[in-house]
Each structure stands twice: as C-alpha cells, then as structure tokens.
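Below: protein 1.
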Amino acid sequence: MDCPHCKVFHEEAIFKDNLMVCPECGHHLRMEPRDRIAYLADEGSFKEINKGLTSCNPIEMEGYEEKISQAQMKTNMEEAIITGSCTIEGEKALLGVMSFSFMGGSMGSVVGEKICRLMLKGAEEKTPVIIYATSGGARMQEGLFSLMQMAKTSSAAATLDEAGVPFFVMLCDPTTGGVTASFAMLGDITCAEPNALIGFAGPRVIEGTIRQKLPEGFQRAEFQLEKGFVDTIVPRSEQKSFFAKMIKAHKYEENFFAKMWKSYESSKNQDKEL
C-alpha cells in the first residue's frame, strides 16, 4: 500500500509492524481500535466493558438499521467505540478507543452512553480514563438524541473532574464536530497525534463559507499546538510510555499531598495537646 503523504509503497505488514506509521516519512495513518488496544494495553490485561450495546433507530430514520449492519460487518465492531479496563506498563487505566471506520466515528446515543459509563466508572473506582477520539461529529441519523450526547458526555467529564480523577484525551485524525465540541476538549491533558486534523467544521466547509483559501497546515495538530488548542503532540510509538508516566505522575502528586495533609493534621493535634 502507498503512504498517502509521501506516496512511497510499503507492504501492508510493514505498516502494521510500525503501528501504521510510514517508515519513510513518519506519516501517521489511521489505526483501528483493536490494534491500538493491542499496543497500549499490557498483554492479556484488557477487559472489554459495556459490550453488547447497539443503536436502535430513535427517530425512525429510513435505512439507518441497514447502515448500522453494514458498519458492523465492515469493522467487526458493535459500535464506533470500544471501552474497557486494562493496565499500561502496570498502571491501571480505563480505556475508550473510537473508530472512524464505523460511520465516521459519529457519536450517537450508544457511543455517548459508553463514554459516560466509562467516565463514571473511573470516578467511582478512582481509575484514570484515557479516550482516543476520532470522529466526524454527531450522528445525524439520530437527530437530537445524538446532540444530547454532547451535554451528557461533558457532564460525565465534570463528574470525573470533581472526583479528582485524571482524564487524558488523544485526538486522532480526524476529530471534528460535536465530539470536538464536547468531551474531547475536556481532558486534563489534551494530546494529539502528529498531523491529525482537529477542529469543529472541516477546512472545506470553512473555505466554502468564507470563500478564502486557508493557510497550509490549518487545523492540523501542529497548528493547534501553536495556538494552544492542544497541550502536546505524542508520536504513536511513544504513547504507551507517555500515558504510563502521566498516571504515575498523578499518583505521586496524590500521595505527596496526602502525606502533606496528614503531616499538617498531625501537627495541629500536637499543638492542641500543648
């Protein structure tokens, strides 16, 4: 297969062995959820949760059930996200990985529900949550039921924040629309893969609206990093160690302040005794 960036041909097996990154130019191709999970999660540690949830047809959109069936056959997935628990270099985490191959990664009621359940589980169990986002936005076939997921997932992210549990987001190519306008921008640390397209409306829509040519690299991860829209860009080969370090750093900080508070309380009690 040809790299879409440099056009150099490599066997598909070479791309897969290299985490779907071009060995020639370093371009990050799109990667399916199970391949990401196999790389990120320690061997044998991933346990899928909320499996079996599938979309109905809440507004009776003609042909929607057929589209769902086709997407399921194409991807061997039930919906556009897989969620589960795992360890990453020995550190416990809850992981959600979206698929652009499943109806453009669109967020309908099931995707929103699975994301919410993942976050609420993280808040309850005090386990860090990591979500790999890639999406064209809200699923138009579900109308308002889809748009409701923006508020719903944002509320779940707020619950996670109130519980003091870290939430990490990896923005993959592309992340746009209602997903960008909701949970994908609410991480404690918002990461992106190199050259990922990140925004609300896509560049073609913007150009058609303002009738101007956009600058080179507009809305790409590097542009968004420069503008402060994302916190860091992490190459795929470094993501496993990156998230393990982030989780360990949070644990260290949590333990440090817990010890400081315990010391403070102890000193207060000693003062009272005196």
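Below: protein 2.
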Amino acid sequence: MKHRKLYFLIGLILSFGITISLSSCKKDKPGGGGINFFSLEDDKAFGAQVAAEIEGDPDNYPILDSSNYPEAYVYLYAIRDSILESGNVVHKDDFLWKLKIIEDDDVLNAFCTPGGYIYVYTGIIKYLDSEDQFTGVMGHEIAHADERHSTTALTQQYGLDVLLSILLGNNKGTLVQIAQNLVNLKYSRNNESESDMRSVEYLYPTAYDARGVARFFEKIQESGGASGPAFLSTHPDPENRVEAIIAHWETLGGKVGNKFESRYSDFKNSLP
C-alpha cells in the first residue's frame, strides 16, 4: 500500500509538469528529516517567486539600491565569488547566487532562498567584527541552498501539495507567508551541521580563515547566546558547533587564514 501511494504521488507530480526523477529526489541524511522531491529547475523557479515577493515588499524588506551603494555591493560580490570559486560549491553554475542587502540594524540575520538568492541584513553585517566571520556566515547560507536544504525544510513545514501549487502560480497567500518566514526557517540538526562543515570547506581554499563561522558562534556565546540569529541558534548549541567546526578544520590541515578586519570595518562604515 505504501508503495502504491508513493507511485501515485510521483505520478501526480509528473502530471503537473514538475521535473522530477529518482536521481533528483535527495534523501536527507539520518536525522535530517525527509526527501526532497524538487528538481534543480524547481528550486530555481520557486526561489525566483520568493525573491520577487521579497523584493516587491519594501516595507518589510527595505533593500539597499546597488546604484546608491555600488562599493558595498562590489565588496559583497567579491566575497561571494571567493566562495563560488573555491571548487566546493556543487551548484555553482546552476543557481544565480544574487545578493541583496536589507537595511535593518535590528535584525541579526541572513538567509538564502532555494535557487541561490542571498539576503543579508545590515544588522548582522554591523554585528560582526571581521570579513572571515561574515564570509563564514555567507558560506553557511550558501550551503543551505547548495545542499538544497530549503526545499526539504519547506516541504516538511508546508507540505508538498502546497509548494507544488505555488510553482503552478497558485496559493499567493502562502507564498507571502513563506517569504516572510524564510528568515527564521528552521532546519534540521543535520542540515545545520552540514552547512557548518560546508562553510569551512568553502573557505579553506581561499585566503580567509576557514574558522570564520566558528568565530561567529564564539561571539554569540560572548554576547550571551540567546539573542543570536535564528538560523544559527538552532540545535546543536553554539559551543558544540564550535568544537565540531574546529575539528573539521583540523582534518583539512588546520591552515590559518586571514581575518581582513580593517577592510571589513571600511565596508561597515560605507553602509547607512
């Protein structure tokens, strides 16, 4: 009976024109919590819809215009490119990896939609002390999209039928809700740990210190921990994650990279 239901579900999805194959169904690792039925094309289409919703809502997402802050965007895209050129981003050429800065100093967060639309708040930019910390956080968020955690987590939260209806142009209200909730999307323990490890791997071949995201966790701990961003305050706790990140960095060879504190300070000062 279970197999018959699965075959019916796959047939239904295919009848809607969603590109799915058994090879594109990504099963989460033990403890991860599910299977991703979305193809890369579905990730991109869904991400584009969410991005359009976000960027069409300036009251909730006041995005800094790149024409008014060209140097800030050039700086961010250079960081992004260093990650993408590390050789470790699986979907480097599949997703768009567009960047936007949201002006809100009260929000210590960043997020990446399916398909690679990256959003960073001025709050987290100003909270951090160095470029390697920020790059570590960006690497963590890129990893969620690269490993396609977002569509897995959203499927668990909203249900496959709801997400499929959005892909078909329906369920506008839920699309708005998803756009508003992406900033606080809860990932599984395994997804969070995997993104931590990927961040280290992305940064390791670059000039950055690959422990950047660990140094961010340490800053959260020094600040009291509880007020840390939602995407990094999920379990496991910061202390355990720092230990795991350092251990992974050591297995790669323990190369000490640069923090680039001075130029990061200049970047922060260029923002409103």
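The longest strand covers residues 98-102.
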